[in-house]
């Protein structure tokens, strides 16, 4: 009888442990800074196998915070949209894109018209976000040498125009 009681208590503890572990694995392993973003569009670049969700980002203290694993979208003018993401996650193969590649954004087709790598210090966000006469996407991600703070010395900037 004593052995059966011991086994029953052990089974209860093992069951509770498994339950707590499952709850922790499902809920507790999310990164502390994880955010549930509202998905506003989808982005695809078939030539490099990129497919990603896009969320709208607003300025916070004059800065755009890049989402961890999806694409951020920011627009100040009617015909220009900035799409940005990390080169280590969502834009890890963006450097393989080529002039003329199709970009599908929010069900519209755009074609890459310019690719450049610029020093971070040489980038004017005001210029990047200038209004255009045609619908234009500007994709941007880190490039160049990685810095100790997780940033990089340069940015890959891709411009695509809707035809």
Q: Using only CA atoms, what is the Rg? A: 23 Å
Helix-strand string: HEEEEEEHEE
Distance between the termini: 81 Å
CATH class of the largest domain: Mainly Beta
* Integer count of domains: 2
Number of helices: 2
Q: What low-confidence regions span 5 or more consecutive residues with pLDDT below 50?
A: 28-33
The percentage helix is 10-25%
Portion of residues in beta strands equals 35-45%
CATH topology (level 3) name of the largest domain: Sortase, Chain: A
Write down how many β-strands occur, each being a DSSP E stretch of 2 or more residues: 8
CATH architecture of the largest domain: Beta Barrel
The CATH homologous superfamily of the largest domain corresponds to Sortase
Written description of the protein model:
This protein is an alpha+beta fold. The protein has two domains: 1-30; 39-162, Sortase, Chain: A, CATH 2.40.260. It has two helices and eight strands; from the N terminus they run H-E-E-E-E-E-E-H-E-E. The protein has an eight-stranded mixed beta barrel with strand order 1-2-3-4-7-8-6-5. Strand 7 (136-146) and strand 8 form a beta hairpin. The model is unreliable at 28-33 (pLDDT under 50).
